[in-house]
Amino acid sequence: MSAPIDFYFDFSSPYGYLASEQIDALAARHDRAVMWHAIVLDAQFQPQGGMKIPTALLRSDYVMRDTARSAVFFGIPYTEPAQYPVHTEHAARAFQWLNDRNPDEARAFAHAVFRAYFVDGRNIAETAVLLEIAETLKLDREEVAGAFSDVATKARLKAEIDLAEARGVFGSPFFIVEGEGFWGNDRLPQLERWLEKGPF
Amino acid sequence: MSAPIDFYFDFSSPYGYLASEQIDALAARHDRAVMWHAIVLDAQFQPQGGMKIPTALLRSDYVMRDTARSAVFFGIPYTEPAQYPVHTEHAARAFQWLNDRNPDEARAFAHAVFRAYFVDGRNIAETAVLLEIAETLKLDREEVAGAFSDVATKARLKAEIDLAEARGVFGSPFFIVEGEGFWGNDRLPQLERWLEKGPF
């Protein structure tokens, strides 16, 4: 199997959610693995060259409409969340902690968190909501609760985010394969061409 | 024939260039006309809600790479310009002036300006370059020169830009059909679905 695809996302990103429902199937068509990376695109996030997407744009009527329209276009269930954006540190820490132990469980957790937020209208900033999700997946409640705030998982997430910044990630979703970055669901066709035919 | 598609672009926008090479064929497949609108996305441009795309992003290595890659993906000739961005007021005024008289000539002028900048590496901020292009198209050199700076064409372009701001345009390319906005080449598939099957 060739080099994996790195998939960076923020749990608060609607486009990240739409990507999460597509990337594994796309990669599987080309016999590639996907490494999922939860990051947090908050005020602390400082991508290279200050290439930050303005909050006014992310919260705009255009983006709200575009997200809903894109979900229909891709055939993915979507309901505009009541709160947006929300804090995603706890979800991201739990994800990374799980991912270091069992990537399959981590992926199931990520899908459940994204769908709770973007389909069922749950507030995934609340640790109670995240623990409910963990229980549904038969994860150990105490262990997941520990991952929300212990020193090691905080440091683990920070390292993941620092690495993302250093690799040129500046939004969600962001994909890297063989050193090539692709930003957004709308670059999935180009990513797929890259996998099919090589660099262009 | 149903409502036309409004196509907004800045002559300095590489994505605007890539759109200019695709939009008429797409519209023709669905029996739609396209109304071309040159605008200038400079410091004076103040879209609704401050949804301005940051200059750091527009000039980033990512966007430079993405533009070149997208051109290959779409099968459109492209050379990264030596100067970027450049002032496009003169080109936009001449375009709007022409467009009010003869949209076919204006479109030919727009294609020639875009290709001069993004294929042949000419600096389209220079009026001498624009006049050369006008001559190649058998336009009246004196008339075009007048359009660069006379009071009426300045006011005409300003009105076009004010209208774009009021309609929610915030980048290039930007398409509006039946009140629905689509930003970017990457939304052309969604625009096409809209034309095929109606609102979604």
Automatic annotation (TrEMBL), chains A, B:
<comment type="similarity">
    <text>Belongs to the GST superfamily. NadH family.</text>
</comment>
<dbReference type="GO" id="GO:0004602">
    <property type="term" value="F:glutathione peroxidase activity"/>
</dbReference>
<protein>
    <recommendedName>
        <fullName>2-hydroxychromene-2-carboxylate isomerase</fullName>
        <ecNumber>5.99.1.4</ecNumber>
    </recommendedName>
</protein>
<dbReference type="InterPro" id="IPR044087">
    <property type="entry name" value="NahD-like"/>
</dbReference>
<dbReference type="GO" id="GO:0018845">
    <property type="term" value="F:2-hydroxychromene-2-carboxylate isomerase activity"/>
</dbReference>
<dbReference type="GO" id="GO:0004364">
    <property type="term" value="F:glutathione transferase activity"/>
</dbReference>
<dbReference type="InterPro" id="IPR014440">
    <property type="entry name" value="HCCAis_GSTk"/>
</dbReference>
<dbReference type="InterPro" id="IPR051924">
    <property type="entry name" value="GST_Kappa/NadH"/>
</dbReference>
<dbReference type="InterPro" id="IPR001853">
    <property type="entry name" value="DSBA-like_thioredoxin_dom"/>
</dbReference>
<dbReference type="Pfam" id="PF01323">
    <property type="entry name" value="DSBA"/>
</dbReference>
<keyword id="KW-0413">Isomerase</keyword>
<dbReference type="InterPro" id="IPR036249">
    <property type="entry name" value="Thioredoxin-like_sf"/>
</dbReference>
<feature type="active site" description="Nucleophile">
    <location>
        <position position="13"/>
    </location>
</feature>
<feature type="domain" description="DSBA-like thioredoxin">
    <location>
        <begin position="5"/>
        <end position="194"/>
    </location>
</feature>
<dbReference type="GO" id="GO:0006749">
    <property type="term" value="P:glutathione metabolic process"/>
</dbReference>
<dbReference type="GO" id="GO:1901170">
    <property type="term" value="P:naphthalene catabolic process"/>
</dbReference>
